[in-house]
Amino acid sequence: MAEDMTLFLVLAEYGTAQIPVERCASHFGMTPQEAKAAARRQALPVPCYRLGSQKSPWVVDAASLANHIRSKREAAEAEWKRIHAA
Prior knowledge:
The structure is a single chain. The chain is 51% helix and 12% strand. The chain has 86 residues and is mainly α. The protein has one domain (3-85). Strands 1-3-2 form a 3-stranded antiparallel beta sheet. A hairpin with a 7-residue loop joins strand 2 (48-50) and strand 3 (58-61). Helix 1 (2-14) crosses helix 3 (62-83). The longest helix is centred in the last third of the chain and has 22 residues, at 62-83. The relative contact order is 0.18.
């Protein structure tokens, strides 16, 4: 259920299933320019690709971004539970 909700929210936020890396750079803790450079090196925490020619913008699949966001949230929740377990 949370998987579907995260993907739905990502799709609602960006309005497309192929999100330009400069638009979602903040999810990686990067500026748009840093994210584009990382995409060229395939150094983002999610796969990125180009639709079309070598001059097309780098994009990230919405499902991959949703999985990345979900894993970050789950890690934060586990850390919070560990700290507050006492």
